[in-house]
């Protein structure tokens, strides 16, 4: 067994070099074992993951899942096991403080190791229901580490923007009405927002800078609206998705959160050769819950942009560099996911997948209802399919609730089916099987080029669907 002074490297099995490990990390496999979510982990929760087949350890406040790393560890699995289930900071540093663990384990982050005290506390420490802001009521509650505001706007799908103006001053703008809260003490950014669109409930969690109970949340005052026509956004990351589609991550100007509902869009504006050019784009957050792009923060604006040969704005966006700015409008659109439907049929062509991604995510994670989703995704070639690996992973995880069918018009698909020119026949042939007894439970979304949308609409009308049963993203 190694001590702080003995060095004892082992021979790793073939296929377990550092390069193989990096390859595994980039393969899209979830090495965190928790779906890439960032968790708050208590010491007692950490202690439960102390087996070779379920191994977590913490180093300098970050919790890692090292189960997959076991056979790649140059000091051997048996050595690594000494640290699992614990805060291994000291042990790790004694043996090899120089090892760049953050980089090696970047795809294995489970979350932050947090103070045990937070978990011992009762769920709600202090609540108040008598605060009324404009036309809606507000509750708040706190624990040592955070406080939470809950707004009941009484309108479905309220417009929500939040801005932390100073560490202890936050502005909530709900349906265009803004209130400023001067908080009792400072909080961190970003906030964590949960919205139940159907009933207009907005929950905002703020992490306190310093642990402690507050006697009050602070004071409320009226303020100018923070909603403007366009906000400035800075490009922070850009990734290639296919040969002509990029995944772009933007940060809003200082500490702003701008909620966009699934299926709604924003206008993106940029000055090109002295002229303002703008176009609608549907943000795809939070669908990207893979670790492939690191941990995307709540307030990030995520866009999928296809560069068209004649598309001035799309080409401009695809050529942006980190630190470049664009302007982004308030959310627009009228799509509201049907509350009365439980089966969604989504028909998309190419980048028409963008509104579908948040709809799928929402349908699979809805706290209110279990939706079943059938996606029919039409592309020219397999290499054009946006995030196929991700869609396949999702449909494997939710195999009883999400089915994905790809139609390729320019090449054979991997199942050996012939290439299919996308026409009425092909869409009809691949249309999900319907249960005729519960036709009223189906809601259909269509998004593609105008000709494609027309074709799909014709087919669904032939199948007896009415205007209220479907939505075409134009
Ligand atoms: C906390 C429990 C751990 C123990 C007891 C442990 C033990 C050891 C031992 C005995 C060696 C061989 C001796 C040496 O090269 O100095 C070693 C090497 C190594 N370990 Fe760990 N290790 C632990 C955690 C980790 C973690 C979490 C990582 C991942 C980032 C890691 C990465 C490495 C690397 C890269 C080497 C090769 C270092 C070199 O060649 O200089 N170890 N470890």
UniProtKB/TrEMBL annotation:
InterPro entries: Cbr1-like_FAD-bd_dom (IPR008333), Cyt_B5-like_heme/steroid-bd (IPR001199), Cyt_B5-like_heme/steroid_sf (IPR036400), Cyt_B5_heme-BS (IPR018506), Cytochrome_b5/Flavoprotein_Rdt (IPR051872), FAD-bd_FR_type (IPR017927), FNR_nucleotide-bd (IPR039261), OxRdtase_FAD/NAD-bd (IPR001433). GO terms for cellular component: endoplasmic reticulum. Pfam families: Cyt-b5, FAD_binding_6, NAD_binding_1. Keywords: Heme, Iron, Metal-binding, Oxidoreductase. Residues 228-338 form the FAD-binding FR-type domain. Belongs to the flavoprotein pyridine nucleotide cytochrome reductase family. Belongs to the cytochrome b5 family. This is Cytochrome b5 reductase 4. It comes from Sipha flava.
């Amino acid at each position: 067994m190694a001590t702080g002074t003995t060095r004892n490297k082992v021979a790793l099995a073939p296929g377990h070099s550092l390069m193989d490990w990096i390859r595994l990390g980039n393969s899209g496999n979830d090495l965190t074992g928790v779906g890439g979510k960032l968790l708050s982990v208590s010491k007692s929760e950490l202690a439960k993951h102390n087996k070779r087949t379920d191994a977590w350890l913490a180093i300098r406040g970050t919790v890692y899942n090292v189960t997959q790393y076991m056979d790649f560890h140059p000091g051997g699995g048996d050595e690594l096991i000494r640290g699992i289930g614990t805060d291994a900071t000291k042990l790790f540093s004694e043996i090899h403080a120089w090892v760049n663990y953050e980089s090696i384990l970047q795809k294995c982050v489970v979350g932050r190791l947090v103070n045990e005290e937070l978990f011992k506390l009762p769920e709600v420490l202090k609540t108040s229901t008598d605060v009324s802001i404009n036309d809606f009521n507000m509750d708040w509650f706190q624990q040592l580490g955070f406080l939470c505001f809950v707004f009941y706007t009484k309108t479905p799908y309220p417009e929500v923007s939040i801005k932390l103006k100073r560490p202890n001053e936050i502005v909530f703008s709900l349906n265009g009405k803004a209130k400023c809260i001067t908080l009792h003490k400072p909080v961190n950014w970003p906030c964590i927002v949960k919205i139940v669109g159907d009933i207009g409930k907005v929950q905002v969690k703020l992490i306190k800078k310093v642990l402690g109970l507050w006697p009050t949340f602070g004071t409320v005052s009226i303020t100018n609206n923070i909603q403007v026509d366009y906000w400035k956004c800075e490009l922070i990351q850009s990734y290639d998705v296919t040969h002509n589609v990029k995944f772009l991550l933007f940060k809003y100007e200082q500490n702003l959160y701008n909620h966009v509902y699934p299926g709604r869009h924003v206008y993106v504006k940029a000055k090109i050769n002295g002229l303002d050019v703008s176009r609608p784009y549907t943000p795809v957050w939070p669908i990207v819950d893979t670790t492939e792009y690191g941990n995307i923060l709540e307030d990030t604006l995520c866009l999928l942009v296809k560069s068209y040969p004649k598309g001035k704005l799309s080409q401009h966006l695809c050529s942006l560099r980190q630190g470049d700015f664009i302007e982004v409008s308030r959310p627009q659109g009228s799509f509201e996911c049907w509350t009365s439907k439980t089966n969604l049929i989504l028909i998309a062509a190419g980048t028409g997948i963008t509104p579908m991604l948040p709809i799928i995510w929402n349908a699979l994670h809805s706290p209110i209802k279990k939706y079943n989703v059938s996606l029919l995704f039409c592309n020219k070639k397999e290499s054009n399919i946006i995030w196929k690996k991700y869609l396949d992973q999702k449909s494997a995880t939710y195999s009883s609730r999400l089915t994905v069918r790809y139609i390729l018009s320019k090449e054979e698909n991997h199942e050996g089916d012939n290439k299919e020119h996308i026409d009425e026949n092909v869409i009809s042939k691949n249309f999900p099987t319907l249960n005729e007894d519960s036709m009223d439970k189906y809601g259909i979304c269509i998004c593609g080029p105008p000709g494609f949308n027309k074709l799909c609409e014709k087919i669904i009308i032939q199948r007896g669907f009415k205007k209220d049963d479907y939505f075409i993203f134009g």
